Structure to design on (353 residues):
């Protein structure tokens, strides 16, 4: 009986939170377009990734989310001026970035689905040698759907048993609808230090703020309501600190989101062990590292994460260990998440244009 009650509470909470919360991942650093449009083109010349999340399969129909994203610097160059005779050069700086991403989510018995395509652009303004200020905009097309025939309501019970057919008294609006969506964001980024494995004294950090659903699009599943999607605010930050003259790096990060009455705070630390670093001059040696991390989603889950980076590729895996009151039915089983990423190699001095 207690298990049935907790399953009901889980379905109830997730059903209504879907109207107020967006698609989100535990590996939030791997989905920059969902966090802040100013992040596109801010680090790598080119980055492409795939991500998959499976959750709540231990107690109900699994909630599955897929994502694919691509972003790049526009017209990147390695140097702006170079004097071959004196071997003098000036590092180039790409001022524009762009990205395209797609995410799809299916939730619960009613197969409540969200499909969204995002187009993002960002401009990066170099404040000085180490600091960059970025501003980004994003336009999206979102399609939502649900299968009402899969739902069971209390008034379908006639006192002795279940009566199949329409759920009398329920006034449905539409099974599917499409709407435009818009977001903006700002980002500050700092980077300094050597990244060679002998020095390993790099310091990099970024912090940003973004607003999604600026236009507060209407949600049209029920004809008797006039619900609008609340604007969503993200505050985020991360840094990478190398322990000098060692093979160890520390990468703490956090993400705080609030949307209407819903709030979510995530934070944690990944420790990286560098087996190889990108060479500074020739690009012949490519980086390789292994990272282990732990993150916490407030009042919900403890997340353990693994990340392996080799050359221009990365594979990440994380698992949500449910810590909320639902542990009585989930037995801490939240769900796994997998990421595959490709990114351009780090710039080195004698790289061809």
């Amino acid at each position: 009986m207690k298990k049935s009650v907790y399953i009901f509470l889980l379905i109830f909470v997730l059903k209504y939170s879907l109207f107020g919360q967006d698609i989100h991942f535990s590996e939030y650093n791997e989905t920059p377009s969902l966090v802040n449009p100013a992040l596109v083109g801010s680090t790598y010349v080119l980055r492409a990734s795939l991500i998959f999340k499976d959750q709540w399969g231990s107690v109900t129909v699994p909630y599955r989310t897929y994502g694919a994203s691509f972003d790049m610097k526009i017209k990147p160059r390695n140097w702006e001026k170079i004097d071959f005779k004196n071997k003098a050069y000036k590092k180039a700086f790409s001022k524009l970035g762009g990205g395209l991403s797609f995410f799809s989510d299916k939730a619960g018995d009613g197969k409540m689905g969200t499909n969204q395509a995002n187009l993002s652009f960002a401009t990066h303004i170099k404040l000085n040698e180490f600091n960059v200020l970025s501003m980004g905009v994003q336009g999206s097309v979102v399609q939502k759907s649900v299968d009402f025939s899969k739902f069971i309501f209390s008034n379908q019970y006639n006192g002795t048993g279940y009566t199949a057919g329409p759920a009398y008294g329920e006034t449905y609006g539409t099974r599917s609808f499409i709407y435009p969506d818009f977001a903006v964001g700002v980002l500050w980024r700092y980077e300094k230090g050597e990244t060679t494995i002998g020095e390993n004294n790099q310091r990099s950090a970024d912090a940003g703020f973004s607003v999604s659903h600026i236009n507060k699009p209407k949600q049209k599943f029920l004809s008797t309501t006039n619900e609008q999607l609340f604007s969503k605010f993200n505050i985020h930050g991360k840094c990478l600190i190398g322990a000098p003259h060692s093979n160890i790096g520390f990468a703490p990060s956090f993400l705080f989101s609030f949307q209407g009455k819903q709030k979510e705070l995530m934070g944690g630390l990944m420790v990286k062990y560098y087996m190889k670093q990108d060479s500074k001059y020739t690009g012949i040696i490519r980086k390789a590292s292994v990272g282990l991390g732990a993150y916490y989603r407030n009042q919900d889950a403890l997340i353990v994460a693994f990340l392996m980076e080799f050359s221009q590729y990365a594979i990440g895996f994380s698992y949500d260990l449910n810590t909320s009151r639902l542990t009585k039915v989930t037995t801490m089983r939240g769900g796994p998440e997998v990421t595959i990423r490709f990114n351009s190699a780090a710039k080195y001095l004698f790289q061809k244009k």
User: Anything to note?
Assistant: Confidence is low (pLDDT under 50) at residues 1-20. The chain has one domain: 2-310.
